Amino acid sequence: MTVISAQPYDYELPEDSNIALIVIDMQRDFMELGGFGDILGNDVSLLQAIVPTLKRLLDGCRSRHLPIFHTTEGHQPDLSDCPVSKLKRGKGKLTIGDAAPMGRILVLGEPGNGIIPELAPLPGEIVISKPGKGAFYNTNLEPLLKERNVTHLLITGVTTEVCVQTTMREANDRGYECLLVEDATESYFPEFKRSTLEMVRAQGGIIGWTATTDRVLQGLRSWSNPAIV
Ligand code: TIU
Question: What pLDDT, on a 0 to 100 scale, did the predictor assign at position 195?
Fold first, then answer.
């Protein structure tokens, strides 16, 4: 049994479990000026703080041979997968699909949709394009996790209370044991991040667990991917 020291209590990885890392939406659209996060009126510089920590976690998970899934939020160029409600939301001057400094906003394949270079996926890591906030909605994430017998998920990325929390709730309802990595997720609103961490682990871990990157890496030292050994 591998144990990660977490809140509200230890997060356990029994012998027959398998754990994967999910990195949500570390794309230029949310991290840089001129992207979707910026046009919604957010201070995108706040999200930069987690990049070195998330890189350290990613490298640690790579060295332990965890399956790694990256996601990006984006839409087909014809926007056929974007609900009108999402297009209209916010009443801003620019919206999804409009031309902006990093290409068309939140459109797949545009420069803004690319994952930031520091966290670029390696060959063999899976990149899921998702049209919604949750990574399970209208994607093939669940069958890919099932193929790999994944039972436990480390959840990271941006933003904590939007795509990260939505994904964690979707995963929790599907039976995955989820741990949100506290210093590998960030929000444009520090109080929303704090609240999300609290609501996830409240009521005996109603949605799952939270722990720091150091604790996760410490726990994973004794972990071997059953598909590798
Ligand atoms: N606006 C905001 O906080 N987030 C998003 O729109 N998407 C993600 O969280 N990825």
Answer: 98
What integer is the mean pLDDT of 193-201? 98
Which single residue is written with the structure tokens 């459109």? Answer: 107
pLDDT, tens digit, 9 for 90 and up, residues 56-96? 999 999 999 999 999 999 999 999 999 999 999 988 899 99
Site of tokens 């906030």: 133
Quick one: what percent of the chain has pLDDT higher than 70? Answer: 99
Give the CB-side neighbour count of residue 41, counting CA atoms within 13 A.
6
220, 211 contact by CB (below 8 A)? no
Pocket test for ligand 1, best of 73, 82, 105, 187 (most atoms within 8 A of CB): 73
Q: Does residue 36 contact residue 44 with C-beta atoms inside 8 Å?
A: no
47 in ligand 1 pocket by Cβ < 6 Å?
no
The per-residue DSSP string of 108-144 comes to TTSGGGSBPGGGPPPTT-EEEEESSSSSSTTSSHHHH
* Alpha carbons 101 and 154: distance in angstroms, whole number: 33
pTM score, two decimals?
0.97
> What is the Cα 24 distance to its own chain's centre?
2
Q: Whole-angstrom Cα distance, residue 154 to residue 68?
A: 10
